[in-house]
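Researcher: Sequence recovery benchmark, item below. Answer with residues only.
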C-alpha cells in the first residue's frame, strides 16, 4: 500500500474541503447582498483599494483575468461597479465602485462577524485559526511563485 496516496494523509484534501465548505458557509450571508463569494472578494478589494485595473484585482485574489472578467461584468450589471478605459493604456480596464457599490459596504460589514460567530460555534480552538493565517499566507505566496515559474514549462517535483 502507498501510504502517501491515502486520502487521510493528504494536507491538500483538508485545505480543499475546508475552502469549499467555508465558501458555502458564506452563502447565507452573501445571498441577501446579491453576491457570490468570488464577487464578494472583488468587492472587498475595491472597498479597500478603490479603483483598480482588472489585472490587479485578479492578482490579488489569485485568479486569471479571464475568470475575474465575468465576475466584474455581473457586478457591473448589478450596478455595483463600473469599467472605464485606462488613461495610460486604452486596452486596460479600470474597475471602480459605483455609489451603490460603496453603499453595499455598509450592509456587508456584518458578514465577517457572522462568519466568526459561526466558526467559534463549532471549532473549539478558533483562536488557533487566526494563528494559521501567516502560515497560509506563506503557503499561498510560495505556491503562487512556483506557479508563475512553471507556467512556461512543465516540471517534475525535483
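Model:
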Amino acid at each position: 500500500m502507498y501510504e502517501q496516496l491515502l486520502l487521510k494523509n493528504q494536507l491538500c484534501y483538508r485545505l480543499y474541503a475546508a475552502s469549499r465548505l467555508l465558501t458555502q458557509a458564506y452563502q447565507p450571508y452573501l445571498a441577501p447582498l446579491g453576491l457570490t463569494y468570488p464577487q464578494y472578494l472583488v468587492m472587498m478589494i475595491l472597498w479597500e483599494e478603490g479603483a483598480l485595473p482588472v489585472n490587479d484585482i485578479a492578482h490579488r485574489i489569485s485568479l486569471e483575468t479571464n475568470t475575474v472578467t465575468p465576475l466584474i461584468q455581473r457586478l457591473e450589471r448589478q450596478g455595483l461597479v463600473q469599467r472605464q478605459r485606462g488613461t495610460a493604456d486604452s486596452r486596460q480596464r479600470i474597475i471602480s465602485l459605483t455609489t451603490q457599490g460603496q453603499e453595499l459596504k455598509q450592509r456587508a460589514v456584518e458578514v465577517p462577524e457572522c462568519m466568526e460567530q459561526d466558526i467559534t460555534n463549532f471549532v473549539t480552538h478558533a483562536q488557533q485559526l487566526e494563528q494559521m493565517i501567516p502560515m497560509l499566507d506563506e503557503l499561498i505566496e510560495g505556491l503562487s511563485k512556483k506557479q508563475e515559474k512553471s507556467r512556461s514549462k512543465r516540471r517534475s517535483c525535483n
